[in-house]
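Intended use. Records like the one below are meant for learning the mapping from a protein sequence to its folded structure. Do not use them to infer anything beyond what is encoded.
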Amino acid sequence: MKVLVVDDSQINLRVAQKLLEFEGLNVDTVLSGKECLEKVKTEKYDIIFMDIMMPEMDGVETFKKLQEQEGFNIPVVCLTADAETGSRDKYLSVGFCDYIPKPINKNDLHIIIEKIKIDKNL
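Structure written out for the chain above:
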């Protein structure tokens, strides 16, 4: 499986990349929503992990722009430090397929990846 991680922090990208590689996934990373939009035009991904709080274009705005692309059907998982009560429901209502609060819990990550694999028959 090939995944894309979008986060404006190099440290967060490295942590996510290591956790995802441990799951046996092929991982690409980008530092912004704009880079994400460009990357999905040239690469095929099975999952996108999207940080919410990014400068210029936040994760929700990036996600909405992805949805506007013809034929877009990649599951997008919200990665965020926003762990307030109701945050999960807020992001799921926008259309994210799942929600992972930061710091990333490797067990939660594993469960979400397995769920997406089943949903997509991967």
